[in-house]
Amino acid sequence: MNALGRHVIAEIYGCDFDVLNDLKKVEEIMVNAALEAGAEVREYTFHKFSPQGISGVVVISESHLAIHTWPELGYAAVDVFTCGEKVNPWDATNYLKKMFGAEHVEAQEVKRGVGFVHRVPDQAANL
């Protein structure tokens, strides 16, 4: 891999309202998504908004997974960022689609740290 990390940005549509609005379910699904991808979970925190919606992050040794839900729209915005080659962010993304009962996912992968990998350190200081 010619990058420091892989970042999957996912737009998850047609999700189950009751799942996206349940703090414990979203927390459990996000933690399990990290494990499904082969990550080592360090810690996590989630917050439920009123009247609905959840935001949260799972910190993994390899980086993080983050989410914000709009249950009333059946929509979740998700980031899965992994470093190294051990963890596959697509495994986590596919798991989330399944567990949220999603009808459709639009996702893209961004390679992170590509410029840093190819740049000589003193050149980076001159930018």
Could you list some keywords that capture this structure?
single chain, 127 residues, alpha+beta, S-adenosylmethionine decarboxylase, six-stranded antiparallel β-sheet
Can you walk me through this structure?
By secondary structure, the protein is an alpha+beta fold. The protein has a single domain (5-111), classed as S-adenosylmethionine decarboxylase. It has five helices and six strands, in the order βααββββαβαα. It has helices at 17-20, 23-36, 89-99, 114-118, 121-125; strands at 5-13, 41-48, 54-60, 63-70, 75-83, 104-112. A six-stranded antiparallel sheet has the order 2-3-4-5-1-6, with helices on one face. β3 (54-60) and β4 form a beta hairpin. The longest helix is centred in the first third of the chain and has 14 residues, at 23-36. The radius of gyration is 16 Å and the shape is globular. The model has no long low-confidence stretch (mean pLDDT 92).
What letter string, H or E per element, gives the SSE order?
Answer: EHHEEEEHEHH
Mean pLDDT: 92
| Count of discrete structural domains | 1
Q: Helical region count?
A: 5
Estimated share of beta-strand residues: 35-45%
Query: What is the CATH superfamily classification?
Result: S-adenosylmethionine decarboxylase
Q: From the helix content, strand content and strand pairing, which structural class follows?
A: alpha+beta
Instruction: Write down the CATH topology.
Output: S-adenosylmethionine decarboxylase
N- to C-terminal distance: 25 Å
- Number of β-strand runs: 6
Largest β sheet strand count, sense and barrel closure: 6 strands, antiparallel
**C-alpha Rg, in Å?**
16 Å
